[in-house]
Amino acid sequence: MKSSFSLLLAEDDDNDVFFLQKAFEQAKIENPIHVVRDGQEAIEYLSGAGKFSDRRQFPLPYLMLLDLKMPRKTGLDVLQWVHAHPELKCLPVVVLSSSAHRLDIEKAYDLGANGFVVKPASLEKRVELAKLIGGFWLGMNEAPVICSEGLEAARRLRQERGSL
Amino acid sequence: MQVAKTAQSWHVIRPIFIVVACLLTVSIAVAYFVGLRALRLNRNLATQSEQIRDLERFVSTLKDVETGQRGYLLTGDERYLEPYQRAHTNLTLELSELKRLSSAGDLPSRQVERVADLTQKKLAEIEDTIRLRRERGPEAALEIVHSGRGKQLMDELRSVVGQIETEKQSEFRQTNRQTSNANVLRTVTFILTAIVNLAFLGWAYGRLGREIVQAEAAVTESQKEKELLATTLASIGDGVIVTDAQGQVTSLNGEAERMTGWQGAEARGKKLSEVFKIQNERTGAAVENPVEKVLRLGTIVGLANHTVLVSRDGNKIPIGDSGAPVRRGEGPIEGVVLVFRDVSEERSAQAAKERLAAIVASSEDAIISKRLDGTILTWNAGAERMFGYAMEEVLGKSITIIIPQQRLDEESFVQEKMKRGERIEHFETVRLTKDGQPLDVSLAVSPLKDEEGQVVGASKVLRNVTARKRAQDELAMARKQLELHAQELEGVVAERTKQLRATVAELEAFCYSLSHDMRTPLRAIQSYSQMVLEEQGKNIGTDCTSYLRKSISAAERMDQLIQDVLAFTRLSRQEIVLEPLDVDKLVREIVHERPELQPARADILIESPLLGMFGHPASLTQCVTNLLDNAVKFVARGVKPRVRVYSETRENKVKLCFEDNGIGIDSEAQQRLFGMFQRLHRDDQYAGTGIGLAIVRKAAERMQGQVGFESKVGKGTRFWVELPGVKS
After folding, report:
1. Is A122 at the interface with chain B, CB within 8 A?
2. Are B550 and B556 in contact, with CB atoms under 8 Å apart?
3. Segment holding B468, helix H or strand E
4. Cys bridge to B240: B253, B286, B467, B514, which one at CB 3.0-4.6 A?
5. What whole-number distance in Å separates Cα of residue B518 and Cα of residue A8?
6. The CA-based dihedral angle spanning residues A125, A126, A127, A128, taken in that order and rounded to the nearest 10 degrees
7. pTM of this prediction exceeds 0.90
8. Pick from A19, A97, A99: CB nearest B527
9. ipTM here
10. How many CB pairs below 8 A link A and B?
């Protein structure tokens, strides 16, 4: 795990942002966590639009943690948008939700989510989750080119290799 | 022909018999007379040989006399005279015999007289010598002897007898010859007769044998003819009765036996009217006996219509018959042959034909038949009414008179189809009446075929459908209106459904928000309280930490409540597909997964195998989890929960039972046990949301099953879920 690998957290609830950041802290995972406060902002971040145009400050994350219920654009909307962009499709996404709603789970995976987790209610569970995410997604997992070398590299690879 | 042949044979045979008879008579007569002659000759022969013997005996006796004389002369002994005397007597007797024969003509009388004379002389000479010997002595006697007169006499006698004998012998030889000739003739005649006899016998035997064979063949042939006739009669499909000239039954064939019910043997000799009872079908009156009529008229007679034969057992069979006289050549009537047959089938076919004709005649539909070229052949009353043409007007005309100008091509189409032998099922078209009014008709056309199956025309059935058309139009109108109504109604239904959908969507949105928006603040409460506890627990004192703990616990309960309500609503709305479930495995997995069901905390006794059930896996899992949770939860303090899980089967259903050692449920509480949010205990006694059993009941109902329980306070409770069983 490289501590420079960043996370993108899309979450509108301040409390949940706070709890999750605290959990990562307690789990001693010091990777940068970029937070966007709704779906629209998440899309802007990923597309490098507006204030997120500086990729050095706002790099493409190794993992996006995506809340489902958000204002402006929901988590499913974000997934759909990502899904529609071939070069971003590879970006790993784990959905965080307040409930294990069957339809939500199905839709999320249908739109390319890589995981679906019900937000833990207790501190201990949250720390456990943070450790698992750090260990797996930021450690064990081999990330796609878009995460390691950026959008341009991913795009080039695609062009060279055709449609893959 | 046979008779003639026999006569002819007789004609030939008679002269042969006569000739042979004459031959036989002649040959027998010849044999008789030849035999008679032979007999006579034989007798002559015997007589002649007797006479020759007599002559010889006479000579011999004469010698005996001479010998006796000589002996006496020589000896003088009287004893020598004894044979002399005997011979002398015999000689006399023999001489008289010769005389008798001579007088009968058998011996020449002159010579016999000479013999007799000579014999007298000789005897006299001998007596002289004997007397001289006795009186004078031998010399005197010998003197006579020496005179030679005696010898002379004797020689002469011998010569005469020898002559007679010679004569007699030649006569004997002649007779003997004649006898042989007669015998030969007799033998020849006999042999000839025998040959003729044998020849005739042989010929007669052959002839007789041939005659017998021919006669036998003739008999066999006539037998065969008779049998053929009998078989023919028996095989005839008609009944045949034959009577004699008196009208008495002499024979009847099988069919007649069957129809009359009389057997041939019984019927024979009976009056025909007894066996063959007939009457008028309608009036029941007796019908004149056809045989009597035939005998009276001497011609073939038929039977009146509607005659029925009353069989022996009373059955009435409609018959047709005819009677004919039996006569040889122009001779007198010898009997009557009556032929009759069962006409029931003809009768019913006729009746069927008439019925059909009546149906055609009385049909409301126009029924028309026509030739292939369209010429009208028949035209029923329905057609008359429908089109206004009388039958006589249209017969022989073309069918096109009722076809509108613009529809004439229909007719050629119809004709084409008919030629191919195809039918035309109802097709609707327009035809014209006599006064030119168009008629809506429904038309069906079928080909008419002759006996060889050749299409020779077509039959048309036309139905006036003007009224029906009107009705159809009205019906169509009504249908249209109905459709309009239905559309309106559908609109209403759609509107309502839309509203209902909106309500459901709202409900769904509510549930969704329950699970998301409501749980988020709960999580915040829980988390912050926990953080305060952890970070500031030491600084805020025990009262505060206790409050914070209660606040966390309340939040947890609220979360559980939300989850239970969601589970309940999900069960209500979820689509459920039933499938066979391995209940044993399902229960074991639940027990294995849940911490409160582990052996350390509870004894769960599963009586394997639990029987398979038809259910929905998630719903049954929910039921089993909730029931097991309850079973281990509601126990008295300090008692280790013990739950027995087992199956019961009744008919084709399976009950999955959970029997616990819990506190039991009082009868008052049992009423509301399965209600929503129903709790029987305070939270500090047994925690819970009051939704668990409501979920169980809902799940069971959704799986078309039932739940129930039996309980006694302090004795434990048995809950059960009943679902359709899986047939093994």
Report:
1. yes
2. no
3. helix B466-513
4. B253
5. 25
6. 50
7. no
8. A19
9. 0.74
10. 48
